[in-house]
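Quick one from the shared queue. A colleague (R.T.) flagged TetR/AcrR family transcriptional regulator as missing a structural entry in our internal table.

Convert sequence to structure tokens.
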Amino acid sequence: MASEPDSGRDGTSDGVSDGASDGTVHGDRAPEAAAERPTARTSVWLDGKPAARGRRNDRTDAPSGLDRDRITSVSVRLLDTEGPAKFSMRRLAAELGVTAMSLYWYVDTKDDLLELALDSVYAEITGIGAPATDVTAGPDWRERLRELAFQHRDLLVRHHWVSPLVGKYLNIGPRSMEFSAAVQEAMRGTGLSPRGQAGAIAAVFQFVYGFGTVEGHFVQRCADAGLSQDAYFRRAMGAIREQPGLESAFANADSRPGC
């Protein structure tokens, strides 16, 4: 079932139209107004919006007890439990006990909020954000990359909604960039050329992204089915082995990949 549309500030269907579907303008508005359309959205990180925004000081009717960090944190929790398809400003407002329009004191659009939520989860990766150090004096670059790769995989599995949002939004928030900087700092220890470092990073982390995405969806599918991951896997493998000609091919597939 599709989620109910949000406020028009989200760009969804219950915003008020200024004209007919053919582009004509009704009422007293001048024809030139039809050309005064808002510019296309780019990213919360590119549109000149502040990194943090609290309650506006020029009005007294803004909701109390809210701030952007709290709104973002609850958004992450809803995305974890319900997924991005069911996420809406109205659903978020209900969880916070406020009206949907109250949220717009702190974010301009739902897309902005999703970008903030996406960036916020990268704070869960440990050991990033520290000042750059001499890569020859720290841990072996292989161990450092392995650690970062495993943490990134765990992030994608823990928050199954991150993968599609990474593909949709420009993921250049401060926490994401701290993670990227840590990866590049570790890769400098390889001694590869800058071009070689870029290629190596792409090879490692595109693999991690793909594996983590598939595993994250598997975890969510098990949860939806009410089964443990091992029980779901065994059930699936049992069905596969019942197919003619596949029993011997999958005879040794008794555990999930990566386990």
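The radius of gyration is 23 Å.
DSSP finds eight helices and no strands in the chain.
Added to the table.
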